[in-house]
């Protein structure tokens, strides 16, 4: 199947950057996130590095830990893969 190749696409790399940025912005360590999720620290590390593919249910769990909406992680962004602090703040705000 093509899943190994899919881990290395620009879109998946952008997703991984958003996943890492969300954790950093939350101020949590990989160990703290793993504890909340009931997983080992290596699980979080492998997810962030793209060594383990994140499925939708797992993404829901990450989003809950970081208090961010799912669309923060899956919305396509033009240009750079880097995520600004403003984008993180905006993603964490409740919709009006």
Would you write up a description of this structure?
It is a single chain. The chain has seven helices and no strands. The chain has 96 residues and is mostly helical. The mean pLDDT is 84. The longest helix has 17 residues, at 10-26. It has one domain (3-92): lambda repressor-like DNA-binding domains (434 Repressor (Amino-terminal Domain)).
Terminal CA distance:
42 Å
Task: Please identify, by name, the CATH architecture.
Answer: Orthogonal Bundle
| Alpha-beta content class | mainly alpha
- Mind summarizing the main beta sheet? none
Helix fraction, binned, reads 55-70%
| Rg measurement, Å | 13 Å
Number of strands: 0
Q: What is the chain-wise order of helices and strands? A: HHHHHHH
In the residues, how many domains can be counted? 1
The average pLDDT score comes to 84
Q: What overall geometry do the principal axes of the alpha carbons give?
A: globular
CATH class: Mainly Alpha
What keywords describe this structure?
65% helix; 96 residues; globular; mainly alpha; 0% strand; 434 Repressor (Amino-terminal Domain); 7 helices
Give the SSE layout.
Elements: H1 3-6, H2 10-26, H3 30-37, H4 41-49, H5 56-66, H6 70-74, H7 85-92
Helix pairs in contact: 3-4
